[in-house]
Every structure is written in C-alpha cells, then in structure tokens.
Amino acid sequence: MTFVQGAMALVDKVFGEEILPHRIYSSGEAAQLLGMERLQVLEMVRAGTIKAKKVGDNYRILGSNLVEYMNR
Fold first, then answer.
1. Tens digit of each residue's pLDDT (9 = 90 or more) over 10-52
2. Beta bridge mates, 61
3. Measured between alpha carbons, how far is 33 from 6 in angstroms, rounded to an integer?
4. 25 has which bridge partners?
5. DSSP code of 36?
C-alpha cells in the first residue's frame, strides 16, 4: 500500500460513507457510494450523466461531481 492509498483509507475510515467534494474517486468507489454497480456508473459516465476524467484506462470522478449527480 502506498502512502497515498494509506492516507485515503484513513480518510475513508474517519469520514465513513460521506462524499467528500474535493476527493477523487474511482468508478468502483463511486458505485459503492451511490449504491449501484460499477458498470452502471461507467454507463452514466460515458453518457455524460456523471462528469469524470479518463486517466489511462480508468475513470476518476471528483466528489463534487457525485454530489451534483445526487442533487439532480
């Protein structure tokens, strides 16, 4: 586990399932927070329903984009 992964795990443990607006989430983490399957999140990202940035072969989703989606 890298330092960053350890730090993010600690943040998750402290804040629980709260979506942090400035945190960057993977599609799997976003799916868990939204209570859906990862493939559903990826479909919404590709459709533009949830804003995300593609990094390599993966999507990264800013917490504020998850909050924006939930407030629709």
1. 566 545 678 899 999 999 999 999 999 999 999 999 999 999 9
2. 25
3. 19
4. 61
5. S
Two tokens at 1? 């586990």
Tell the residue number behind the tokens 């402290």, with chain if given: 14
Name the packing angle between helices 27-34 and 38-47 (round to 10°).
110
Whether 19 contacts 63, CB under 8 Å: yes
Q: Which amino acid is at 50?
A: I
Q: How far is CA 60 from CA 41, 56, 63, in A?
A: 11, 10, 10
State the pTM of this model. 0.76
Helices 63-70 and 27-34, interaxial angle, to 10°?
30
